[in-house]
Amino acid sequence: MAAIPSSQIDLRSDTVTQPCRGMREAMARAEVGDDVNGDDPTVIRLQDEVASLLGMEAGLFVPSGTMSNAVAVRTHTQPGDEIIAEEHSHLYVYEGGGYAALSGCSIALVQGKYGLVDPAEVKKRIRKSEGSQSHFPNASLICLENTSNRGGGTCYRLETLNEIGDIARESDCRMHLDGARLFNAVVASGNSASELVAMFDSVSVCLSKGLGAPVGSVLVGSKPFIEEAHRWRKMFGGGMRQSGILAAAGLYALNHNLDRLKDDHNRARKLAESIQGLNGLHISMDTVESNMVYVQTEESADKWKKQLEEHGVLCFALGENTLRLLTHLHIDEEQVERAGKVFADLSRK
Ligand SMILES: Cc1ncc(COP(=O)(O)O)c(C=O)c1O
């Protein structure tokens, strides 16, 4: 796709993409109804399409990935329950503590490696009220993230997911997947979406990240789960009316932008290869599995970010010595080369 006209190379996030002409036309043409009344045909089509792609019974269109996770946690748990998640997960770090405020849950954190958890570590964190003389909260939900954002875009192996699924079943816990970038994991792992989510009770997928839609996520699960989630979406203020206009962008994204995710992954790899080994910069190349590149800087990441920006390369500084670069729809080969050269020039100064 043609880059958005800009002299800047915007590697901050895959959320910065703008809807292309074809997507905007699909939105303008969308047949709409009133989705709060359940009669918006385009929303129904999107929900069904995502559910079917993931091998689930039903789907629910929600405004954001954060709301999707919040609705899932609320639907699966009772106040006083405990949820289990990786210590750098989006749900724990970047969702305002919604699990506590909106669901009344505590959280047990698992230390992961590059954002991915080990099944044995998950098992150790499961506490049950029963048998503890009511000392412990009740662990009822295990939340995983695939790909892992703070892990560097890393992907779970299918065997690991199956093992954690077995532990969840043995422990009477449900499983929720924050699959904001599930389709990146599909492309990177070679597994189908339905294989990667078969052990989960619910999955949230984002349309507004690598897929390039302007807004929206879809939460999928069993029919009874989605019926209950529908009620929580209402209470969280996420019921939308002529949202078929937004759903049409999501359908367009699914039909046009899935296969091309491999281009983003190849470009992230190229970018990482051009930076790795430069003076004062380090990349764990094993983590570059999808569209993200995390760069460790010997000097302050903020200083690097500012210098890069002066040379037309935008990225995020996460923490004192970490830069995050993401490839997406608007980043082409030439920009990857140019960004690599800027890093090389700055590293010589
Ligand atoms: C892994 C992950 N989950 C959830 C979200 C939340 O999505 P949203 O920004 O649509 O609320 C993000 C956003 O970047 C994310 O990276």
List keywords for this structure.
349 residues, alpha/beta, Aspartate Aminotransferase, domain 1, Aspartate Aminotransferase, domain 2, 7-stranded mixed β-sheet, binds pyridoxal-5'-phosphate
Commentary on this structure:
This protein has 349 residues and is α/β, with parallel strands linked by helices. It has two domains: 9-17 and 260-347, Aspartate Aminotransferase, domain 1; 31-256, Aspartate Aminotransferase, domain 2. Helix content is 40%, strand content 17%. The chain has 14 helices and 13 strands. The strands form three sheets. It has a seven-stranded mixed β-sheet with strand order 2-8-7-6-5-3-4, sandwiched between helices. It has a four-stranded antiparallel β-sheet with strand order 9-10-13-12. Helix 3 crosses helix 10 (223-235) and helix 12 runs parallel beside helix 14 (333-347). The radius of gyration is 20 Å and the shape is globular. The site of pyridoxal-5'-phosphate has 12 residues, from helix 3.
List the helices and strands and how they pair.
Elements: E1 9-10, H1 21-29, H2 41-53, E2 58-62, H3 65-76, E3 81-86, H4 90-93, H5 98-101, E4 106-110, H6 119-125, E5 138-145, H7 158-170, E6 174-179, H8 182-189, H9 193-197, E7 202-206, E8 217-221, H10 223-235, H11 244-256, H12 261-275, E9 281-282, E10 292-297, H13 301-310, E11 313-314, E12 316-317, E13 322-326, H14 333-347
Parallel strand pairs: 1-11, 3-4, 3-5, 5-6, 6-7
Antiparallel strand pairs: 2-8, 7-8, 9-10, 10-13, 12-13
This protein binds pyridoxal-5'-phosphate (PLP).
